[in-house]
Amino acid sequence: MHHNAPSPTILLLFFAALAVVGSTAAAAPGKQDDPQKRFARKDANSDGFLTLEEFKAGLKDKALEKADKRFKKSDSNGDGTLSFDEFKAGMPKPKG
Ligand SMILES: [Ca+2]
Ligand SMILES: [Ca+2]
């Protein structure tokens, strides 16, 4: 590989990539995001319960395919909605 000076195109791509990475990181649920915030964000009507629709909102493809199972599994009292406790219990547990 030659060490040429970066062309304007390369620089543009570089900054575009940075922007994409930045926005993806901001949009994706971070590891430090606490369950309460995730729950509140999903609870579109803020009634303290997640319906299946609310639970699936924003998910796509594979996550969406798993959502039904996860929802049913998490819904421990079978009332068709997830309380915060149920939501939290159904989340992958952080290690440590
Ligand atoms: Ca709700
Ligand atoms: Ca429930």
Mean pLDDT: 86
**The CATH top-level class label:** Mainly Alpha
Ligand types: calcium ion
Strands, total number: 0
* Element pattern in H and E: HHHHH
- The CATH superfamily bears the name EF-hand
Helix-strand category: mainly alpha
Relative helix content? 55-70%
Query: Beta-sheet strand percentage?
Result: under 5%
Q: Give the CATH topology.
A: Recoverin, domain 1
Low-pLDDT residue spans: none
The separation of the N and C termini measures 44 Å
Number of domains: 1
Instruction: Give the quaternary arrangement of the chains.
Output: single chain
Q: Could you say which overall geometry the principal axes of the C-alpha atoms support?
A: elongated
The helix tally amounts to 5
- The gyration radius over C-alpha positions equals 19 Å
**Mind telling me which CATH architecture this is?**
Orthogonal Bundle
Major sheet: none
Overview of the structural elements:
The chain starts with 7 loop residues before the first helix and ends in a 6-residue tail after the last helix. Helix content is 56%, strand content 0%. By secondary structure, it is mostly helical. The mean pLDDT is 86. The site of one calcium ion (CA) has 8 residues, from loops.
Task: Using brief descriptors, characterize the structure shown.
single chain, 96 residues, mainly alpha, Recoverin, domain 1, 5 helices, elongated, binds calcium ion
Explain briefly what this protein structure is:
By secondary structure, the protein is an all-alpha fold. It has helices spanning 8-27, 35-42, 52-56, 61-74, 84-90.
